[in-house]
Amino acid sequence: MRRIAILGSTGSIGTQALDVAARHSDRFQVTALVAHSSSDRLFEQVRAFRPQIAALTVEPASIPEDIKDACEWMFGEDVLLRVVRACDADDVLVSVVGIAGLAAVMEALSCGKRVLLANKEPLVAGGELVTEAARKAGHPLLPVDSEHSAIFQCLQGAGGNRPERLILTASGGPFRTWSREAIYTATKEQALKHPNWSMGRKITIDSASMMNKALEVIEARWLFDMPAERIDVLIHPQSVIHSMVEYADGAVMAQLGTPDMRLPILYAMSWPERLPTGGKRLDFEALSALTFEKPDLNRFPGLGLAYQALACGGTMSAILNGANEIAVDAFLHDRIRFGQIAQLVEETMASVPVTQHPTLEQVFESDLKARARAKELLATSRFAI
Ligand code: NDP
Ligand code: MG
Which of 56, 96, 107 has most ligand 1 atoms within 8 Å of its beta carbon, as the pocket-test mutant? Predict the structure, then answer.
């Protein structure tokens, strides 16, 4: 029986993790549930899973009588850290959004808990520190992001052979075939319609701009200790191949499956064992074709920024991430055009100083400076709609 804490339990990844935990209730015990403000959803989850701790950053007006004494309740801005410290979990699934998960990831590792990582922004912002902390803790970071889970799966049984190249696949998102001009003025509704995956709003916008793939290139650099020039991105609109690994002899290993996050979530939870997810199986006879395209950096300039950030090193990836969080939020609040997301990130990257080999405090400092600079730029006439 593995005891698991779920940070971000009411979100897209969190609810799917609870779905697989319920399916395998003989294997997983949910010990902590944490969300931001979705209190009604959290109350339902407490009724169903009876955790040791339930927590929200925003305190609800009241807790329903029937579950008031069912568990320990925690509220406030710092609940992620408090829950990580107090819960008696073996594993912590970090599935909150944005850099908010970074301190919790570091705390979980320093408490000796295993980290199952869906939340990619902590690795983007603080990859060097997070991977070093995992090494010291003696636990592998178990990737939940489907591409990184695919690579992790392709590396099982590699017998010490290091891959020569990682190939991250990308669906291309809803604007794969659109012109640069049309993408520039795409609406929120258009950007929120992902062709293959149903996910939270932030990652859905990132997928449409391909900034998600930029974050994933940086994530892969740290998870697999691979230099950026050996990480390729390949558009594969069917999302059947979730990513690939190429070895010295030219052999390419790929992981295939239907686009269903429950597989990578459950694989991280049960690794190295494989358990049924309850999802659909891949039907090869029903697949008409698997196709591949080179990504177009002219139409999706955000992707190129990942390689620039990695070439620069230090806190540049944290600056990219912080600026992107502000840009996505501004787009979702109708303050900028879709095409201005990458523009805002690029301009912020050009004007915030970088710290090499940062401490955790310096990562947060760069993140705050990037956010402040992005907001300053947003207030200029160039970013007015
Ligand atoms: P959602 O927006 O659907 O869910 C986010 C969850 O985190 C919610 O439970 C939310 O609570 C909670 N939350 C947000 N901020 C805080 C905070 N500061 N403290 C406590 N809880 C918080 O996001 P997704 O599930 O889509 O994504 C989660 C992470 O996983 C992201 O980093 C994303 O990039 C990554 N990921 C997601 C995939 C997917 O398929 N969805 C695929 C691969 C990676 P509330 O409901 O109360 O707001
Ligand atoms: Mg992904």
Answer: 96
CA–CA separation, 327 vs 342, rounded Å? 8
Report the nearest-CA residue for atom 42 of ligand 1.
145
- Average pLDDT for 85-105: 97
List the beta strands (DSSP E) in 199-263. 231-235, 241-246, 252-256
Distance between CA 344 and CA 371 in Å, rounded? 11
> DSSP 3-state assignment of 19?
helix
Ligand 1 nearest-atom number relative to CA 212 = 34
pLDDT tens per residue, range 251-274: 999 999 999 999 999 999 999 999
**Ligand 1 pocket test target in 6, 7, 199, 210 with most atoms within 8 Å of CB:** 199
Q: How many A from CA of 243 to the centre of ligand 2?
A: 10
Give the closest residue to 31 by CA, choosing from 145, 100, 113, 129.
113
Q: Give the integer Cα–Cα distance in Å for 249 and 105.
A: 36
d(CA 319, CA 302): 13
pLDDT mean over 211-215? 98
Q: How far apart are CA 248 and CA 147, in angstroms?
A: 21
Q: Which residues line the pocket of ligand 1, CB cutoff 6 A?
A: 8-14, 34-38, 57, 80, 95-97, 100, 118-121, 145, 197, 199-200, 203, 261
How many of the other CB atoms lie within 10 Å of CB of 192?
15
